[in-house]
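Title: Request for sanity check on Release factor glutamine methyltransferase prediction

Description:
We are preparing a figure and want to confirm that the structure record we downloaded matches what your pipeline produces today. Could someone re-run it with the sequence below and paste the raw structure tokens into this thread? We only need the token string, no images.
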Amino acid sequence: MKGLDMAGQQAPGPVLAEGTERLRAAGLDNPRREARLLMAHVLQTDLAGLLARQNVDMSASRAFFDAIDRRAAHEPIAYITGHAGFWSLDLETSSTTLIPRPDSETLIEALLHHRRDRASVRSVLDLGTGTGCLLLAALSEYGDAWGVGVDIAPGAARLAARNARRTGLATRCAVMNANWTSAIQGRFDVIFSNPPYIPHGDLAGLMPDVRDHEPARALDGGVDGLDAYRVLTEALPSLLAHDGIAIFEIGIGQERDMPRLARQAGLEILEIRADLGGIPRAVLMQHGRR
């Protein structure tokens, strides 16, 4: 390895430059930024600390290039580092479930807009909880609330439980490994779901970061992408409190289908809220007026 001194130390600049070039050759966007993030992860520092770093030893260099090779194969950075930010939380990630995305924060923003009184939310249900990001973000904002997260994947349920402990919210929630609504009784003030919603025929065209690394069962929404919504909207009337609100994440174009499914289940649409990119992302539902 070029630039090594007698003690096996090397200045970080050349190491970072080589990592950047490998990512650029793999066709990744922002190769220098991603290389810096991976080096900061390996050195257990932040980007500011990285600037002050004087040298990198041989062990750290090997770990860095191992991480670079994984990223060059389009493995998401959040799987390499093992964590990702969501809302105000830092959450553990794993390939058992999807990586929390900024677009999903739209659901938390919608909840805060429609339930400004923090005492108005006492119970939260998250169907297909994954990392637990929606459930835990809601509990972090509503200090009097308790919640339940449900996921059919055992690994995802265990991950959400670890994140509840990681965020200090474990005493206010429970995580269940079950098939969405089959093990749930009672009514909830808020119900979240970010279910699989990609039409099956579109999976092959997804970015390789998603297609090749994130779990297909958390992406595949059936032929038209609506399979999960059909099940969930039918279940909502028996799970939603009288004045409760359900907030579902949707994919591109699905804002045309969700109102129809909601009406069929006796629900009405309260709002369809766009994410920061202007794409309709959060559908808010409540019991229909009688």
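Thanks, this matches our download. Residues 1-7 have pLDDT under 50 and may be disordered.
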